[in-house]
Amino acid sequence: MTAESLPVPQESELYARIAAMVPDMDAERARAVLTAHDVRLTSPLPARRELRVRRLYCEGTKEGTEGNDGPFTIDIPLGSGPWVIASRNNSAGKSSLLWALSFALRGEGLKDFRRAETEGWFSYVRADVEVAGVAASIRLTFDKPARPRAELLTADTIDQLLALDGREEDGPGVRRAASAGPDGVGELIDRFMLDRLGLRPVSVWKAKAGVPKDADGNRDSAEQVHRWSSFSYAITLNSGHDTNLLGPTHWGQLPARLLQIFLDVPYASELTRLTAEEKKEGQEGRHFQRRAKEDALARTAQTEPLREALNQAKERLTTLEADQPDLTGLLADADAAAQQVARHQATHQQAEEQLAIAHKARLKDARNSRRSRQSKAARLLLGALDPEACPRCDREIDDTRRAQEDSEHRCAVCAHQLPELEAAALQRLVDRENASRTAEDQAREAVQAAGSVLEASRAAHDQAQHRLSVARSGDWYATLETARREVYQIEGAFAVATGTHAELPAAVGDFVSAENTAATGQVEDPDMLVLAAATKVLKQVVAEHSRTLFKELNEEIVRIARKLGVTNLTSVSLDLSGRVNAKKSGAPRKFEDFSPTERLRMRIAAVVGMITIGRKHGIMSHPGLLLIDAPTAEELVPGDARLVLETFYETATTVPGMQIVITSIEEALWEIFPSDRIVTGPEDRQLF
User: Fold this and answer.
1) Local structure of 159: helix, strand or coil
2) How far apart are the C-alpha atoms of 606 and 316, rounded to whole Å?
3) By CB atoms within 10 Å of each CB, which of 30, 144, 410, 530 scores lowest?
């Protein structure tokens, strides 16, 4: 099955597979869990990563040379295809120019290109590039060696940037996009390249040195995040002395992951993110369980001392309770006294109410008696009067009214009935008044008697309460309460230590339950189940496509490596761990056992093979740029140097969208490369 015929599952299919592996999970919930962990399984689209260098401009001052000190300026036009920075002698500045270019492209200079004596010569570096169709000019100003500040210019077209002279920054269509100080140059270039080339950081996990494995064989690891500086090893290749096929480290299978990304293996980037999340969550979960287990062991170690302390506290409490004074009688006396006060208070209140009633009755009777006496006196006075007219309106009183007063006992003035005031009736009112006065005096005496009884009962109640308070406020009672609190506290601590928390408050019980669950590890986190299922599903997809593409790449590596002079190479079988698994003359050969020159050429073959396969499938997953310093420097076999240079020239010429920049002092290069593809100095010697 070829890469074209191998189907790429769509995101809906992947979410369905993941959900089917987790109990009580559906595709939408699985999607939500992964999204919360910043993992999005979007259907992959063909990558188009292009990085082309169009111009390298440098300024500086040479110092410490033998008769060649002074300022220099070098302006190199570049483009697609093969290029060689050449000289007929060593120490002409070839590697230094490659170092300056790598600094602009990476935000830091590649150490394999660095020459310590020339690093301080550079004061200004300019690289005009096209990154995924965007024209940019990276300007580095070195106030201190290897510590530049940066300006990033953009324009509508690359020609607008190429039209600028030297350090010139203003021109038609040219814009300042960003700038950074010495501490931010790497971050600026990193952000620009990752964003334009559509690359996501890759996380790998490396075991911490000196950390022992746990009972399950797991060792704590630290996350290493690889960004553009690591990706750029596919452009500025590792040196021949490096034993990694690709990238700065072999930890976390980084070489294989870089191969997968630059071969555009579907969901390779998502798998790296997912694997990092699963490892992170898993390690945090193991840390939590380990802490819970340690806490449980600590609580177990505390059990016996707590049990002994609890027994001693209970014994002290029992002894104190046995010496407890008789509070029962004192409590009963205080209760009886209180009840007596309540009864006497009710009696006193009733007597006061009776006194108020008697007082009111006496006042009423006195008022009636007084009015009767006043009416009799008035009648005796007014009866002697014989008015001729009404004293108010002066109307004359006629004989008829006078006759009615005599015969019917009606007043001739107001025509009302005249009362018969008899001595017997008046006496009755006086007697009634005397009786009510006597009743009031008796009620007052009853109130005074009830008040005396109430005061006496209150005094008795106060005495009973005082005796009870004295008993309770003694040293024994305070000691008893302290002993009880101590028992309660130790019982609580013992319950937490042993997990027997049924009688504890709910919040404490929940805490103990959570700790016990974490210690036993019996409850599985649904998020972890989804992450594990997603990792398994994506690993299968990535592995299937990787094996198919690796099979094609293996054939390309063998073909290209042989052309580059790796003799007797029989086969290569890249695996998912990034191992080469090569054979020479039919015998297995580890990659680190190849010579430095062979390792470099195998590495070149792998990257060129990736580019070739990508173009074959109509994708541009690799940026298409290679910077190689002295690929023939350690060539021992006569004629191989020419073969290597011819292969570089042919590859960069025939593979669409490829740019190769190498350095060389080989005589054959002057015959292989056209003069407009050779960057050199006066008389083919010093470049600057």
Assistant:
1) helix
2) 82
3) 144
